[in-house]
Specification:
S-adenosylmethionine-dependent methyltransferase activity; 23 strands; SAM-dependent_MTases_sf; Aminoglycoside 3'-phosphotransferase, Chain: A, domain 2; Phosphorylase Kinase, domain 1; about 20% strand; alpha+beta
Amino acid sequence: MSHTVLKHQLFRNEPEARTSQLLCCPKCLIRLNAYEAHYACSHCKGQYPILDGIVDLRESDAAYFCEFERGAMHHLLEESPDALEKAIDGLLRQTEANSRLGEYIVGEGRAGWKFLLPIREAATVLDLGCGWGGIAHSLAKSCGDVIAMDSTMERMRFLKQRANRDGLNNLNCVCSGDGNQLPFANETFDIIIINGVLEWVPSGRKGDPGAIQKAFLGEVRRVLRDNGTLFLGIENRYSWKTWFRQPDGHTGLRYVPWLPRRLADLYSQFHGRGSYRNYLYGRAQYQTLLEEVGFQESSFYVPLPGYDHPSKMVPLSDNDRLRQSVIRPEKSSLKRFRQSVKASLTARFPDAYGIVTNNPGAPPSFLDSFCEFLAEKIPRHFSNRPEVTDYRINGEMGMVTVILADGGNGDHARSVLKLPLHSRSDQDVKREADNLTLIQEQRHPYGKLRSSIPSAVGCDDYEGQTYALFSYIRGHDGDIYSRKRGRRELAIDEASKFAMKMHVESKHAFAESTSTPCELVHNCAKQVLTIAATSGQAKSLELLVDKLSAQLSNRPTDLVLGHGDFKLANCIFDPATGYLNGVIDWGAGLRPELPLFDLSFLIVDACSQMAGKSLPNELESWISGEWLYPEMHRILAKYAKTLNLTFDDEDIQILGAYQWLKRMTPLADGYESRRFDYRYVDSMFQAILPE
């Protein structure tokens, strides 16, 4: 992904004095002058120190909002920027923090909604109350100047170190937030982000919380350009989960948001939580509040499952899509009924909103302008401007996937647009486009299967953002059958037939390959070793690799071209017949692989869901030789016979151990947010402990 490179850097700590281009005095809103170690106001004579290139505009440094104690944060900041991820992992383990906190700190998926905004290389962006700065970090890859502002200096220093390491010279940090005015001139920013912040603004301030929030939004409107855009991520006061006794995320008390404000305040004080000041609102109330401070046009989205870790962005007005996005496949009629009720409640009373507010004359969103671009660039593929029918965010993979429908052909002509969020996913999507282009060639080993494989329509760069467009395979992904026994077995059988054809066609491609199964094992092991947290884990890995290498050496076999991520979720089935329509997501494919790996990868996932077991427990049963699913064993044996391979209980152990390595390898990547889920990582290492 191309990053914006600025000709100047706004907040350089240079020896000579200079005038800041954006900053104003937080007291009198006069432009600040920059000196070697501080900023100064020529009007009120106020001085504001600079620490590690970050100006401190706070009235007091006493306030500290962070998931870790101050001493622990200072220790973290002493680490080398190149070792930040490893230091974060160590701190999470030391404090036994929530396993999702690592993703919250460095994950790119939290800003996955950014393509709904008018992001462009010339845009100036302000992220208010940015916290650890994950959203600002992502926006800096798509926009011009990005200012991240938070009142906790330690988190600002962390973000600054991370930005410097990653070469994001256009991401600048300001420590501020305890004053009544934003320290910027009128009409400074094109885009302002307020994600999970508005409800906290009244904390520690005197006065009516609602009036304080309104005044804050008035300040936001002041520093936003007349044709600017505001993104507001916040909970819904009337979330349906409150009915079912889910505690409020701000006070820890049930029912508080629903209560009248005065009663909520008394209730909070009675339980020793202090005055209730974290005001939330409903859709109409948010609309009114925004209009009262000058915002005129607002579009409401529902971030699912929540605004802090969204995996989908669904327009609030699309009730059918909201319901379908929530429903999961269940076995019993009672559970299916509960899913139906949950879906209806979510459509009517969602947990949270993502509100995009555009002032008149605001540029179109990235996605809107991109759809116009596609209609002009690929008229043979789109007879009219394409329309968005689904918007998905995969935070772990760092990918936004958008389903587009041809506006002139209704719902029947669709395409899949992929927008990577970081450099690794950027490489993945380009590799997938290259792979699918190769497959569509008649001479490729998979050429005979191309009717069941998407084609690459285009892969290029738009406004500094890499994109790839693929054809769409109609049907349901196989996850919908994961809890329906009869349909599940049919789906796995259909997928196994595809795997047989795929590997029979490609087996000869590596008949004389210099790669060997043992080399595949050792290449994975080198990467997995980097995430071993203890010497015991490293030793367990060494023993696993030695045993696996010995087993593979005694079973010479030709390699095949693998899919790399072969699972029911990537297999698309005809909803009427249950037959396989195609296989998607080829970014990890067309690489040398063990013949049985793809199919066993799918079966491990399916068996884990069937038995309600965790993935580490399922793999442990394979590695230990205790695995026993007769129907799945039959499918694997049939596949092995088709490829003239031996297949016995030892092969189950080999496949389990090799799968463990392949599933752990991505966690060694610095962009993989799940690497910070230390409980998951430890449970995976527990699965290979010698008896």
